[in-house]
Design goal:
Elements: E1 5-6, H1 8-15, H2 19-27, E2 35-37, E3 40-44, H3 45-56, H4 58-146, H5 148-170
Antiparallel strand pairs: 1-3, 2-3
Helix pairs in contact: 1-2, 4-5
């Protein structure tokens, strides 16, 4: 009894077709499984002999030709899809290049703005320095009007503060040595 039973691939070999076509026959209820062992379906030998006669009929040959035509259509469809994907890819590449160039322009503009702001900051620093000197001079002149002794003291203080700022700009802290001052009046 088991010798009369065939699997899908056995039926396909006996019919001279592929197993997918046998699966289509099963879906159309032209073949019915007699026994199932797990996922395997077994078919009677007598059942597929009737199917073999049907396959040899002229209508079945037309069906086979229509299936081969559909393969060609499928190939053409795949080629069209491939061309469309290539065009989309090229568009993405072009848009990427445009984005990169616009970002480079933005960076250049930002760099120019940064340099301009840096220059403006340097000018403002110079203005603040000159205004500080003018303010010190104005205070000194105001003191002259009030008391000449204060003028000498203020002038000496102004010179010392200018010397401190200029010397601190020119020398490092490591090379700068100052005399020690003590609370007692005598020194060695």
């Amino acid at each position: 009894m088991e010798e009369d039973l065939l699997t899908k691939s056995g039926v396909a070999d006996a019919l001279g077709t592929n197993p997918m076509r046998v699966t289509r026959f099963i879906e159309r209820n032209k073949l019915n499984a007699v026994k199932k062992e797990g996922k395997r379906e077994l078919f009677k030998l007598t059942q597929f002999n009737a199917l073999k006669e049907e396959l040899n009929a002229p209508e079945a040959k037309k069906d086979a030709q229509s299936h081969s035509f559909s393969k060609d259509d499928y190939i053409l469809t795949l080629k069209k899809q491939l061309k469309e994907q290539q065009q989309q890819y090229e568009q993405v590449i072009e848009s990427k290049d445009e984005t990169i160039s616009s970002l480079k322009e933005t960076i250049a503009t930002s760099q120019k703005s940064y340099d301009d702001m840096k220059d403006q900051l340097a000018v403002k620093d110079n203005q603040i320095t000159s205004l500080t000197k003018l303010t010190n001079n104005a205070q000194t002149l105001n003191m002259v009007d009030k008391d000449p002794k204060r003028l000498q003291a203020a002038h000496g203080d102004a010179e010392r503060s200018n010397e401190r700022t200029s010397s601190s700009e020119k020398t490092d802290d490591s090379t700068k040595k100052t005399a020690k001052k003590h609370w007692w009046p005598w020194s060695k």
